[in-house]
Write a structure and sequence with these properties.
- The protein is mostly helical.
- The protein has one domain (12-137).
- Helix content is 72%, strand content 3%.
- Helix 1 runs antiparallel to helix 2.
- Residues 15-133 form the DUF2231 domain.
- The chain crosses the membrane at residues 49-70, 82-101, 107-133.
Length: 142
Amino acid sequence: MTVTTQPVYRCTPGPLHATLLAGTVPLFLGGLLSDIAYYQSYQIQWSNFAAWLIAGGLLFCGLALLFGLLNLIRAEHKGGRALVYFLVLLATWLLGLVNAFEHAKDAWAVMPSGLVLSVIVSALACIATWIGLTNLRSGGAQ
């Protein structure tokens, strides 16, 4: 009896890609926590903190998205987890951009849509990071 196995190539993000990807979570989560503090205290500075944290999260997420696109282009199989990772990261960046535009409004006009968007973007950032930092398979079974 002969057993043949297909080699499974695991490709994890490089150190810079992983750092950028992992940096999105605390920045977007900090924006969410600042929105919660603003919702409870009515201090405008919390909204300013949230806007800056979201801008930083967009920068990190955008660069991680660029790395994800390059990895997707270089992958032998264009589907599977690598594609899901890229799409979740793209959705995170796009909703984060909408959230940044929402936070550009004046004072209380940010609420409640800014808070809801911050919750969604933070959850998507956590999901994208989870998918991206687990072993992505680029060969064999996906």
